[in-house]
Design brief:
This protein is an all-alpha fold. It has 8 helices and no strands. Helix content is 67%, strand content 0%.
């Protein structure tokens, strides 16, 4: 069954059809929310809130073919709402654990991820949302604008400003690559 049929069935109250739609989208929504919010718990809450809004407002969706973009927009808006509600909560970052030493030197990739993590932390939620949607999810700027419900020019200016802030933050970061030792461990 294609997505349009699932959306039509879900609009008529079919819980199973909506669950299938949500199951197909939840991983990408969670990844985007984690990158925007920088907190896995808040990200899960934002995704859940976006899905609840989607179920509640599904009858109002005009074009079933735009379901993915609409759901992404609801989730990004939930992320922005989360940051507004919890301005004073400290930022927590969950990094993937390394379970076994790798044969190749992973220190460069880990260092790059830490650097990106650090510079993203300097952005406000709107700038992070644009950067995440465009660079991490690969959406074109027109789709980012649609997702956020803002004009393309605003997306371009936010992206330009965010990239400038990231450059400044990278220049200011006292960053050194860890030195690898035998066995793939880091010093």
């Amino acid at each position: 069954m294609d997505q349009r049929q699932l959306v039509e069935r879900a609009r008529q109250g079919d819980h199973d059809a909506f669950a299938e739609l949500a199951r197909a989208a939840v991983v990408r929504l969670d990844q985007a929310a984690r990158l925007i919010l920088r907190d896995p718990e808040l990200a899960r809450d934002a995704v859940q809130e976006g899905l609840i809004r989607a179920w509640r407002d599904l009858p109002k969706l005009r074009d079933p073919d735009r379901f993915d973009a609409w759901l992404r927009r609801l989730t990004v808006n939930s992320c922005i709402d989360q940051t507004r509600r919890r301005r004073r909560r400290p930022i927590e970052v969950e990094l993937t654990a390394i379970h076994a030493p790798a044969v190749v030197d992973m220190s460069g990739a880990l260092a790059d991820r830490d650097l990106v993590d650090g510079v993203l932390r300097h952005l406000d939620e709107r700038g992070r949302a644009v950067v995440v949607l465009h660079y991490f999810l690969g959406l074109p700027l027109t789709e980012v604008a649609t997702t956020l419900g803002i004009p393309v020019g605003t997306v371009k200016s936010r992206l330009h400003r965010a990239l400038g802030e990231m450059r400044v933050a990278m220049a200011a970061e006292p960053f050194t690559h860890p030195s690898p030792i035998a066995g793939g461990q880091l010093v």
